Structure formats: C-alpha cells, structure tokens
C-alpha cells in the first residue's frame, strides 16, 4: 500500500522487510499519562452510558486535540499498524478481507436495486425524513435477505433429502444477497373490461 505509514512502539525493534514502512513512532507517554481516562472512555462506550455522538465532540475539542484525544490517536495508530502488518503478512487474512469487501459491495448493490427511484438519492430535506427513507430501505433490504436465506436453506435441505452431498465449503460461498430473481417493480395485471 503505497503511502501507508506504520508506527512502531519500540524505535530499536527490527521489523525486517517492514522497516522502511515503520517510520512513525508511537508516543507511549501520551498513552500512559491518559490511561485512566482511556479506560473510562472504553468502559462508557462498552456499557452504553455515553453515546459516540456525545464523545466525538469532546475528542474533537475546538480545533486543538485534547490529551485524551491524542492518546486515542496513538492507540489508533498502534491498532492500524498491527492490522496492516497482519494484512501484509497473511495471504489468508487478505482473502478474508476481500471476501468481506465483496459481501458488503453485494449488499450495496442490492440496496441500489431496491432504491431505484429518484436516481438513488435521498430527496427528503430534513434529517427525520432521510432517516425514514433509510429505515424503509433497510426494512426492504432485510426482508429480501430473510427471504433469500429461508429459501436457500430450503434448497439445501431438498438437495440433502435427494441424497446430494452439500459441503460446508459450498455453504460458505452462498450469499443471501442475490437479487436477479426479485422483481423490483412487481408485475401488474389490468383488466380492461369490467
């Protein structure tokens, strides 16, 4: 990944072929000085006593990052560096990431097919109207996924009843996000004579 900067916690550590990429340094002191606040922040998020929408303005400050915000950034750099090192190192991990990206893109494609009107744009001016549109889209999308999941399972069950072997590897490749069989605009019959 060109232009990607990895951070190292130990400036003297040898990371082999990743040494040229690990030029950033983690400020461990920033993390240790704010450790108690970091634990309180993580606990508040985990227990649900504070919402992300309440915490983000505090972390953003007023143009200048707070000490807690700087500590969160240092931990984020560590986490991102560990993730990217694993990504570089493991072909299996890269495949898993690619599979997840493909699934998410399939979900977006299904959402675009469902939300075909209005050039796939939110047309409501107010936030509540947009939330209503997105909620309706999620409801229909989830209904399609549920429908597909139920009928995929029925098809697998029928194959097994007929004596066909269905392996776990085959099942892992199935996706309930297919939509070519779904009529997005329905089928209408008009009787012209009374």
From TrEMBL:
Tn3 transposase DDE domain residues: 6-188
Coiled coil: none
Pfam families given in the database record: DDE_Tnp_Tn3 (PF01526)
Matches recorded under InterPro entries: Tn3_Tnp_DDE_dom
Organism of origin: Streptomyces spectabilis
Name of the protein described by the UniProt record: TnpA family transposase
GO terms of molecular function: transposase activity
GO biological process: DNA transposition
């Amino acid at each position: 990944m060109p232009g990607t900067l990895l951070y190292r916690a130990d400036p003297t550590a040898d990371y082999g072929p990743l040494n040229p990429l690990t030029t950033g340094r983690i400020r461990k002191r920033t993390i240790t000085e704010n450790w108690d606040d970091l634990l309180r922040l993580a606990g508040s998020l985990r227990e649900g006593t504070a919402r992300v929408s309440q915490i983000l303005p505090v972390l953003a400050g007023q143009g200048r990052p707070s000490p807690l915000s700087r500590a969160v950034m240092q931990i984020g750099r560590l986490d991102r560096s560990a993730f990217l090192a694993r990504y570089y190192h493991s072909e299996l991990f890269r495949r898993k990431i690619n599979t997840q990206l493909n699934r998410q893109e399939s979900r977006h494609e299904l959402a675009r097919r469902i939300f075909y009107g209005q050039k796939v744009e939110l047309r409501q001016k107010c936030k509540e109207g947009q939330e209503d549109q997105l909620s309706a889209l999620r409801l229909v999308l989830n209904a399609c996924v549920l429908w597909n999941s139920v009928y995929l399972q029925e098809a697998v069950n029928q194959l097994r009843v007929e004596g066909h072997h269905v392996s776990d590897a085959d099942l892992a490749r199935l996706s309930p996000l297919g939509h070519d069989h779904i009529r997005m605009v329905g089928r209408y019959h008009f009787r012209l004579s009374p």
